[in-house]
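Q: Convert this sequence to structure tokens.
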Amino acid sequence: MKRLLSVVETMAALSMLLIAVLTAGNVLLRYTFSMQIPHWFDGSQMLQGIAMFWGIALATYYGTHICVDLLWEHLKPPGRRWLDLLATAVTLAFLAPMAWMVWVKVAGTGSQGTMDLRLPLQWFYSVGAVGACVAALLALVRLVQLWQGNAASPESLGDDISGAAHGS
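A:
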């Protein structure tokens, strides 16, 4: 599981890094040589979509997405667990069909490409679709882990990071 999470984190981070490099490179070229990277804006949009899908997978697994915990804070631990189970089940109920529909979109792109470079949109959409599938899969894993009483939590993030830093 740690390898899968590492791959998901790497994909999201790599997409964000490419967006930053693409944007900074374009600004540098524009102000230095009065030219632009062809299709930089659409490329950064595609990369942002990829980063979002892969980031949703992580946020879903760790339960770190934006929440309003007004009710959760006033519940006892068993109530919190049931509320987490319900919220994760609802999340899975939305992520699974969304993943399917993203693949439908991939299949419907045909030979469409970007305007300037004619890069196939299917490449970008496919990487995003895999991220959507991973998000649904990690929601299912979280649901099972919550049911068993051993789900990952935001507090465990610090343990994983410090454990990795110390080689354990």
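The radius of gyration is 19 Å.
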